[in-house]
Design brief:
- The chain is an all-alpha fold.
- The protein has a domain at 31-87.
- 62% of the residues lie in helices and 0% in strands.
- The protein has five helices and no strands.
- It has helices spanning 2-7, 22-44, 48-51, 58-65, 67-86.
- Helix 2 (22-44) runs antiparallel to helix 5 (67-86) and helix 4 (58-65) crosses helix 5 (67-86).
- The longest helix is centred in the middle third of the chain and has 23 residues, at 22-44.
- The relative contact order is 0.14.
Length: 99
Amino acid sequence: MRVISQRYPDIRIEGENYLPQPIYRHIASFLSVFKLLLIGLIIVGKDPFAFFGMQAPSIWQWGQENKVYACMMVFFLSNMIENQCMSTGAFEITLNGRF
């Protein structure tokens, strides 16, 4: 940034952090906790559907047979959604006071 200021002294650079909307922050927080809970259930091997008197779906049975792959998929997919929720996309460029 200092190089740009030295080479182009007329250019003014300002930066700010923009927070995402509160609903998206809450969704990301919920997903983070849910992700850890789900990974814990997969590792321990507990069936949460039996607690509610339901039959486990086939994807849960697959996850119990392939624990490492299932945990990795839960981790990466939920992180992808969390990052999308936390991204604001806020970026503005002005030149001489104009957008």
